[in-house]
Design goal:
Layout: E1 6-8, E2 23-26, E3 29-36, E4 38-39, E5 44-45, H1 50-67, E6 75-82, H2 88-99, E7 105-110, E8 121-128
Helix pairs in contact: 1-2
Length: 131
């Protein structure tokens, strides 16, 4: 019998904007749903610019990964969804600043809209546990 899929949304992350959990985990595999740059304390975007939203997303992803027994070093792939590809360079700067030397596989695409009003970016990822 395949292992059960466990789902969760840590208390110190933004509330999902739909009927889903932020994290799904089975065995050592973790997937985290698209996350906007929302400050969980206020429910508002971390800022109006791509840099502040990007850094907030990575902070939230780190919280979620920790709650699932992982960390930023165990990310396999990140998907980046940009409202405007003109923000790609500034997003890359903020992403590199927050991720340090970590360079998981990544895809970045522009989309026509994002679910959170005012969001310039969302990211989702696949990772594995530390063990």
């Amino acid at each position: 019998m395949p292992p059960k899929v466990e789902t969760s949304t840590p208390a110190n992350t933004m509330k999902p904007v739909g009927p889903y959990s932020h994290i799904a985990k089975t065995g050592q595999f973790i997937t985290i749903s698209a996350t906007a740059g929302v400050d969980p304390a206020t429910g508002k975007l971390a800022g109006p610019d791509i840099a502040s939203q990007t850094k907030q997303i990575i902070d939230a992803l780190e919280v979620m990964l920790t709650s699932a027994g992982s960390d930023l070093d165990h990310i396999m792939h990140v998907n980046v969804f940009l409202a405007d590809m003109a923000d790609f360079s500034a997003m890359n700067e903020a992403y590199a600043e927050r991720m340090g030397d970590r360079r998981p596989a990544r895809t970045a695409i522009a989309v026509t809209g994002l679910p959170k009003p005012g969001a310039l970016i969302t990211m989702n990822l696949s990772a594995v546990t530390r063990d």
